[in-house]
Amino acid sequence: DGGITQSPKYLFRKEGQNVTLSCEQNLNHDAMYWYRQDPGQGLRLIYYSQIVNDFQKGDIAEGYSVSREKKESFPLTVTSAQKNPTAFYLCASSRSPDTSEAFFGQGTRLTVV
Amino acid sequence: KNQVEQSPQSLIILEGKNCTLQCNYTVSPFSNLRWYKQDTGRGPVSLTIMTFSENTKSNRRYTATLDADTKQSSLHITASQLSDSASYICVVSPYSSNTGKLIFGQGTTLQVKP
Fold this sequence. Notes:
Structural class of chain A: mainly beta
Distance between the termini of chain A: 36 Å
Shape of chain B: globular
Strand content of chain B: over 45%
Oligomer: heterodimer
Structural class of chain B: mainly beta
Shape of chain A: globular
Order of helices and strands of chain A: EEEEEEEEEEE
Number of strands of chain A: 11
Number of helices of chain A: 0
Number of strands of chain B: 11
Order of helices and strands of chain B: EEEEEEEEEEE
Radius of gyration of chain A: 13 Å
């Protein structure tokens, strides 16, 4: 059963701590993305990767880091440098970046306490 | 600046009624325009995807239209059901973007009441 899986669904973090969000896909997609969603706003791109061992900053990359060591996995680390990390984080993948449908995971809701 | 604007921001309709959601964009040129449905607390799910040369695309009770001249798209929902209650997001892919830099609208929240 192919798909894209994010974990955990809910995550709580204390201020000053780094936290890593997991994203795994078994769709054999080359491209993977991380988005942030805040109430009343469109999704904003944090980082994207078109191929293994390569990734690029999106529009709001400050305070975040990623890695793409395997085709299937694209974890996102929210660092203590991110000033307002509480948000809903969505991971997506697509066969190719331009014309293919993007498949989204179910999201991780991160809350800083 | 490339933008995607959706209207209305929110909408309440009775079950069984039809409705139309609007999307205006300034992205030009663009490769394709997509409509997604997002249930509360879940990831978006694709409804339709249209290239710049297509005028209409249907998926069950959902019909998307595209007017590239006026840079407008609409999503028409026929015979609404309670399960249609969700946020509907219009997404545009710039033509020269091979980076997956999709431009998202802020969404229209639809509530279908019995």
